[in-house]
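@channel sequence for tomorrow's demo:
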Amino acid sequence: MRFQGLPLAAAAALLAAAATAQTYPERPVRLIVPWPPGGSVDTTARYIHEQLGKELGQPIVIDNRSGATGNIGTEAVARAKPDGYTLLINTITIATAPALFPSLPFDVAKDFAPISVVARAPHLLIVNNNVPAKSVRELVALLRASPGKLSYSSAGNGTNFHIAAELFKELSQTYALHVPYRGGGPALLDTISGQVDFSFPSLTAGLPQAAAGRVRALAVTSAARSPAIPDLPTIAEAGLPGYEFTSWQLVLAPAGTPREIVARIHRGIVQTMKSPQVLERYAREGTIPMSTSPEEAAAFLKAEIARWTKIIRERGIKAD
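structure tokens (generated this afternoon):
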């Protein structure tokens, strides 16, 4: 009697959707990472995909679709069939994109169904080993002494790297050349090789390189020191009071994905984030595991869009 009074076609559609949700998933689920391998979003996806696949009962296949500051892969999910078989994991760029790119091929507020925030993490301020600065204060002094002569890499316009660096430049009143790449992996590699002077990679990606001596870590971007590297000061401690930046990763589905399927994926994420294997990986890399409700994830994304739109406009951050 639940469908009494509904047009026959609408009732049939509701019944079909309910039946589909009950059997979901019946085949592998594709998780689109809109960045190349090696960056923080890709790393998070690879940390959780195996366990999430176990929770859902089907493999999670990672699909790296990089380019256009994450917009190519993000658009692919916005245009995908809303059946739960194509998901997106993205970061701050999905919140900065509306302010940086006036003609996006998708509407962040309307084209996605947020499922859960799955991680928060600080970034590192690193310099390549040829840069003489051994501390934040020394780097600031070097930047002031040679305006525009030093360069920094980012994973692309509006990415975590870029925003973290722009905040640093704003507070230190310095200037450096921005060199955007197609992802965090290439940006980090060129910092290691000395093609650029400094960068702000995720702790997950940057810490192993610093530990191996390939780059020099000067500070973490968070308000408090990271348990993963407790001897390293924060940027605020090391000479820029008030500096704080942490990134996040969010799992989304295309808008219109049935609520029952979103709920099923969400339950899988909640259990995944309790897995000892996932928790151990996160702890080792200084990442904070999270699982929020879809409603909380949607509210979080809305607030982040508003926050970064304000900062980008106030500080004149441009898509170079």
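heads up for whoever presents: Residues 294-315 form the longest helix (22 residues).
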